[in-house]
Specification:
About 30% of the residues lie in helices and about 20% in strands. It contains 7 helices and 7 strands. The protein has a 7-stranded mixed β-sheet. Strand 4, helix 3 and strand 5 form a beta-alpha-beta unit. It is globular and about 50 Å long.
Length: about 210
């Protein structure tokens, strides 16, 4: 696994659980407001790369005090070793929460089939007709829609999440996006932090305010 960060203890990333958080390197989206820009490149950075063996050692030492592990990014489903890695976490008796942008439904389908995840948080960036703008380039919207349906029908605890990027989305957009949430699924609005945005224009807007 190409890991770029590790937080041994978190009280806010896995609902209702004391958890560790693992960050994967690489993302296929370039969302203008992203505040984890250092995680976007697919190539590993020797300066930030985290050794998988060390992570597993720490988790094994703390497994009795942890309720789970959050695997986030970047975009975890880009990692070819993801199923193997999640299997190692499950072997420790730890529940797994996966954060994903939903761009790889075939990976999600496998993880669900092999029961390698216990909670899924999936980002919904925008109304479908604005997805390319909010993800910073071409996007397979149909793939994201497939993932949305998979997550909603999984029977697992899950949540869809949207960052309220007011400079890029309108109240009408938020209304339309809300209508895309499957009935019975949880949806959370996340805080937009312009000062940390990948897009310098959005950062500049924060300074002006």
């Amino acid at each position: 696994m190409n890991l770029a960060g590790f937080v041994p203890l978190s009280l806010c990333d896995y609902p209702g659980r004391v958890a560790a958080v693992v960050f994967t390197q690489g993302c296929n989206f370039r969302c203008p407001w992203c505040h984890n820009g250092h995680l976007l490149p697919l190539a590993p950075d020797p300066a930030t790369r985290v050794d998988e063996a060390r992570v597993m050692t720490v988790l094994a030492e703390r497994q009795s005090r942890l309720g789970g592990v959050v695997v986030t990014g970047g975009e975890p489903t880009l990692q070819a070793d993801l199923p193997r890695f999640l299997g190692r976490l499950k072997a420790l008796g730890l529940d797994v929460k996966l954060d994903t942008n939903g761009s790889h439904p075939e990976v999600l389908r496998r993880l669900l089939r092999e029961r390698l995840v216990d909670y899924i948080a999936m980002d919904l960036k925008a109304p479908w007709d604005k997805y390319a703008v909010l993800t910073g380039g071409p996007c397979d919207v149909e793939a994201v829609q497939q993932s949305l349906r998979l997550v909603a029908a999984s029977g697992l605890p899950h949540q869809f999440r949207t960052t309220r990027v007011d400079p890029l989305l309108t109240p009408r957009d938020y209304e339309q996006l809300s209508s895309q949430i499957p009935e019975g699924s949880s949806h959370a609005w996340q805080l937009f932090r312009p000062a940390y945005s990948r897009d310098p224009v959005l950062r500049a807007a924060a300074v002006v305010r």
